[in-house]
Design brief:
mainly alpha, Arc Repressor Mutant, subunit A, Four Helix Bundle (Hemerythrin (Met), subunit A), 3 domains, 3-stranded antiparallel sheet, about 10% strand, elongated
Length: about 325
Amino acid sequence: MAGIRASELDVFRERLTAEERAILNTTWDHYRDRNEWIPCRTLHHRFGKAGVQACLGQLGANVISRMEDDGGEYYRLSFLGVLLTDQGEEAEQLLARYLEYVHNRFRDDPRLEWVTSQDVEGALNLTAGRSRLLRQLIRVSRWWGGGSGFGDQEWTVGVPVDVDVIPAGPDLRDYVREHVIAHFQPGAPSPQAGRPRGEFWFVKDPDLRRELAQDWHEAQNVYQVQGWKSCVLLCGRILEAILLDALSREAEAGRVELAELVEAATARGILGTGTPYLGPALREFRHLIYPGRPKAERIEVTRDEAEAALVAVRMSLRQLGAETPKI
C-alpha cells in the first residue's frame, strides 16, 4: 500500500505541463539561490500574469500559493511544490538521508533536542552547497522543531516533533513521499486545508499559536547561550498555555499550578501515558521571578533544569499532537 501511495508523486510529476514545470522551477530556483520567495511581479514578467494565475488555479494552493510579507507580494511553493520541480528527486534523497540520521541520533539519545550543520555535514559527507540545500529543504518541509536558526553558512535545527515515529532506514524516501502526499494534496483550494502545520497546530487561538511558536524558538535559543533561567521561564509559560488550552479550563493562569495542570491532563488522557517530568525549577517557574523570596527557598536553575524543561515541552507537544483529534 505504501508503494502505491508513494507512486502518486511520480504521477503528479508526469501530469505537469511544460509551463507549469517551468513556473515551479523558476519559483524554487529563486528561493534556493536567494533564500527568499519570488516577487509576484517578477514571475508575472516572465510568464505573464494570466499564465501564472492559470497555473495556480490548476495546481492548487497546496502546491504554489500567493503570500504577503512586509508589504510585498510573493509566490511560494509548498513542500510538495518543491518535490514537483526538476530538483525534486534529489531533494527526496537528501531529506531521506537526513531523517535517517536524525532517527539514529534520537534512538541513541532520546534527549536529543537539535542538531547542527557541522554534525550533519560530517555524518552525511555533505559539501557546502548540499548543506545549504538541505537547510532549505528542512525549512520548507517543516521537519524541524522550535529554536531553529537558518544562517547562510551554519545552521541549527530542532529535531522534528514527531521524531519518535520516524521509521528505521535504510531508505526513507517512501516515508517522505507518504508524508507529503498525506498533507499536501494537489488541487486543494486553500493552504489551510487539512491539519494545520507546526508544533502548536492543536492550539485553538491563532494569535496564541504564534506567540507560543515565538516563545519556543526563544526558549531553545537562550538555552544555547546558557540562559538557563530564561529557558525555564519560557518553557513553563508554554506548558501552562498548551495545557490550559487542551483542558479548556476557564481559570486564571496565575492561580493554577503547573503540576495541577499536568495531573489533570494526565487524568483525562490528554497526555497519554507519557507524563512530562517537572523539575523543581519548572514546577515553581512562576516563583523564579519574585526576588523577595527567602534565600532558603530560592531555586538554583542549572543546565539540567533547563534541559528537563525543554524535554517536558517536547514530550507534551508530541502527546498533545497525537491525542488531539485530527482536523
